[in-house]
TrEMBL record:
Gene Ontology MF term list: iron-sulfur cluster binding; oxidoreductase activity
Presence of keyword Oxidoreductase: yes
Domain 2Fe-2S ferredoxin-type: 5-109
Residue segments, region Disordered: 657-680
Keywords per UniProt: Oxidoreductase
EC number: 1.6.5.8
Main enzyme class: oxidoreductase
InterPro entries: 2Fe-2S_ferredoxin-like_sf, 2Fe-2S_ferredoxin-type, Beta-grasp_dom_sf, Corrinoid_activation_enz, Raco-like_middle, Raco-like_middle_sf, RACo_C, RACo_linker
Protein name, UniProt field: Na(+)-translocating NADH-quinone reductase subunit F
Amino acid sequence: MSTDPLVVFTPSGKRGRFPKGTPVLTAARQLGVDLDSVCGGRGICSKCQISPGYGEFSKHGVTVHQDALSEWNAVEERYDQKRGLKPGRRLGCQAQIMGDVVIDVPPESQVHKQVVRKAASARVIEMDPATRLYFVEVEEADMHEPTGDFERLQRALKAQWEIDNIRADLSLLAKLQPVLRKGKFQVTVALHRGHAETPAQVLEIWPGLHEGGLFGLAIDLGSTTVAAHLTDLETGEVKASSGIMNPQIRFGEDLMSRVSYAMMNPGGDREMTAAVRDAINTLAEEIAKEAGIDAKLIVETVFVCNPVMHHLLLGIDPVELGQAPFALATSGSMALNARELDLVAINPRAQIYVLPCIAGHVGADAAAVALSEEPGKSEDLALIVDVGTNAEILLGDKTRVLACSSPTGPAFEGAQISSGQRAAPGAIEAIRIDPMTKEPRFRVIGSDIWSDEDGFEAAVGDGGITGICGSGIIEAVAEMRMAGLLDESGLIGSSEATGTARMIEDGRTHSYVIHDGSAKGGPVITVTQGDIRAIQLAKSALYAGARLLMDERGVDKVDRVVLAGAFGAHISPLHAMVLGMIPDVPLDKVTSAGNAAGTGARIALCNVAARREIERVVGQITKVETAIEPKFQEHFVAANAIPHKTDPFPELSKIVTLPNPSFNTHGDGSDGGRRKRRRG
């Protein structure tokens, strides 16, 4: 008996089997996948564009063959000729499922387009950019003095600006003479000097006085999102911030899945490199358009990224990062040009700087956090956690700084959660559960009104409540623990044990209903036992990594905690501590640094001396490799309890008294979690 083909949609992770010949759009609608369509599947609007993936996807247990979708048809051909489809794209209403397939829904095809929460943090940065503008008056050509135009430009820069030793590539020399004559031998040049001892390179030249500005991109290349800040290289002002989903998600949501894809599919690393470079070009075009500037005025780009993203950006196979001793091809900073990375959207002579990596699993993004937060200059012992698919953790003060990476996985970002989604309008981002009635109230992205307040339904609008994002699931689990719906081990109680009908049977376990929108055709949003386990695994990895660094320093507590990352800005310190994500400290000692990696990238973009500083600092950071530390597993297991099995949380107990029900087979949970508690 034949089995219908399996279709897996990313980034949602939703999957199902459908008869051969089923249009992708139909399958997406039946599974509740966020795939847009305005024309009703007529092949006119192109809103339903999708990107099929081919090869072996061990994470999904699927091998996708080239004939997994029906052949390109006349409708797609006509649309491609009229408006153009990106390479590899298909129209979901036309492509039919013929075999097992993995399909990525790109951000622009999603109805609820992602809100990338990586806005630039307000930060005073001393401006000392590597690229500057210089206006010069050049001597006119004279047949009695046979000197080349470029040599006369060199002479003018030395005489008028005391700048010696400049060079230019062939593409610049090709435009030099017409620009000089158009400007009547008065021109503005953009000169780049990455090191004081290296020649300055002419990146661009304009006739007369150029007043159109000069710009750079600070890019945080993450596993899930690529965030960019378009920065004025003269003032340091962020002109626009934007983000795009990392298209490599279709090859695997976590880093090791992508390394595995490269190992199992010859040329897989090149596929992923091409995908991310294409996304960066798209992002550069979009951010320039948003700011109303010519993208060719972007003459510098600084990248920060984890080691796997670092290698895939540079076109280096990351296979060695998937096995001990986790060797990097290079850990030093990199100075490149745009052409080497196929960055065609920006100035062709643009210069690229990639921050150094700290270790095999602690990358340039962690170095950027160190540049931004400066733990090595701290008087007190600071724990800095950059929360993402992988958590980068720094612990240090003036005496010593340590670093490690911990594999938290994508649960904190809403993935692998039954009602989970990435941060987008309609996603529950904050929740409170009444400890007596066990009733929830919540707030969704796109509205400041809580669900029990007047005007909530109108504020939420037609899109409605769609799911729960990372900050929402963290608060939900912590609130369930504080309300006595969840015991220390993470087990959810029954309706009888907890005294609320919101507990529903879910196989052999129970789920807590946050919102039931089924009466209006909407989703039923629950927290399941599987969701609890996914969050426990993520938070245990995070806490265990922090404990390893504390062991190395010989301490049992830290003085303060800094939550960094796009996600860190939206985590409630109280809920993070109840959950046991972070060590116990006074709540006022838990602060958010926003997107510290992005801030570090901006500092390196705007201040050339900062690049030398972080190169020096990285060499002094002690690296701890969690993958081979024997005590990691011990810490991980103890951290499975909520908040922790053995570590005391005295500061937390001053503001919250956690109930102590037991919902295992021997405990009846008769206290119902109704012990009184105080909340701050």
